[in-house]
Fold:
Amino acid sequence: MGAYPQTMYFVGLNEPVGQEVSLKGLTVEGTLPPEVRGSFYRAVPDPAFPPKFENDHTLSGDGMVSRLSFNADGTADYAIRFVETARYLAEQAAGEARFGRYRNPFTDDADMAGVDRTVANTTPVWHAGRLLMTKEDGRPYRVDPKTLDTLGSYDFGGALKSETMTAHVRIDPATKELFFYGYEADGLASKTVSYCVVGPDGALKSEQWFDAPYCAMMHDFTISENYALFPIYPTTADLERLKAGGEHWHHEPELDSWLGVMPRYGDVSELRWFKGPKGVHSYHMMNAWEDETGLLHFDACLNSTNAFAFIREPSGIHIQPWEMQGALTRWTVDPKADGGEVQESVIGPPGDFPVIPAASQGRPYTHGWMLTMNPELQGPPLAGGPVGAMFNLLLRLDMRGGPPQALALPPMAGFNEPVHVPATDPAHEGWLVTIVDQQIGDNAFLHQAWVLDAANIAAGPVAKVTIPHRLRPQVHGWWVPQAQLDSAA
Ligand code: V55
Ligand code: FE
Structure:
């Protein structure tokens, strides 16, 4: 068995850990707000075996599901386990990697043909009492929220036809419906997109398919009170390239971006396409909402190109990370118009991992949080994650135009994406929980969960839990209040 490549995707904070642990009764320092009772689930890619190809990267890592629970007695428990996907089990049986390049089954061992190769490594999604570990290239795996046991691939009780489900879903705060889509819904590099609505009881109520303008990496989408919005950015797949053993994605700077808009309970024939600028890309959207005049606003962490070097480089885009331009960017359209162009305005800083309260989903909103790089940092950032550097500044943005609030980390420290925990009093903005990684020596790290007052992040954590185990960077997380865990049990 070979060793892990000594590239940035496998060293330092990104070094594979591969251990399943369960740690109980961890000390919570400070004052834990009573509302922070429940579990913070995280998706963590961690390759169980050295990859078949040296140039492999973070997004191929086997999904681990992690749970940090805040207990009634004021302590915390931490656990992490592999999601036992068909791929994980096949590789465990062989004692080595059997699957090849990221999203290219033509590079797998021949006898793995037909084995589900998704890795469930992107977002833990909680809906209707079920916890799903998602990855945009396949169907999710359901896991037990308490034991983290893998319960198997999940297809909504046999109802789902799409071969894929996104890792970025949206839940309407009023109806509790789950909205999602899947791209490459009927096969590799296809333009077919599925659009699904799931009732508050977890039953798949509707699945429709439409064609995107081209096969794009559709990582996230949004809903508003009345519309579903599908952004298309020109990071594209090509079947011939895959057959030749190439990369799944190339970024194409000369191609247009698009925003597809349809009534969210409408028919896909009502989809209208609005053209955006060429060559831009966004992984995550903060929100979408309708104003009193009926205009539709779509707020995304937009970049001038794809943020991942392992996508840019094979595309022939050779720029340094700091040459990338980005901003929280609003695209405004008239959803009643028959297409046209988006109206673009800059509404915030560069960065990613936007967070809003679940209650603001799809509605006019007053504030949100996101991560960015501190331009005033006096020292190196923490190396890690798929981009190579961890974000080190947490921002609270006032969407009505007030000044932002910030919480900065020292050099060699980074934030993972926070989750928002609502407060009981609607006048209180609630709490954020986030894992903070700090490098404290040669290949030595301090990992802590910080609990922050969402309205006053600049004050620093009100409570902290040190996790005495090596952690890798998470992709996304999800907060599940204890009452929901109890009623699902
Ligand atoms: C992303 C993450 C993925 C993926 C595609 O962060 C895009 C963006 C963790 O897996 O497969
Ligand atoms: Fe994401």
Helices lie at 86-94, 239-243, 309-312, 482-488. The pocket of 4-hydroxy-3-methoxybenzaldehyde (ligand 1) is lined by residues 45, 59, 121-122, 135-136, 219, 283, 475 (CB under 6 Å).
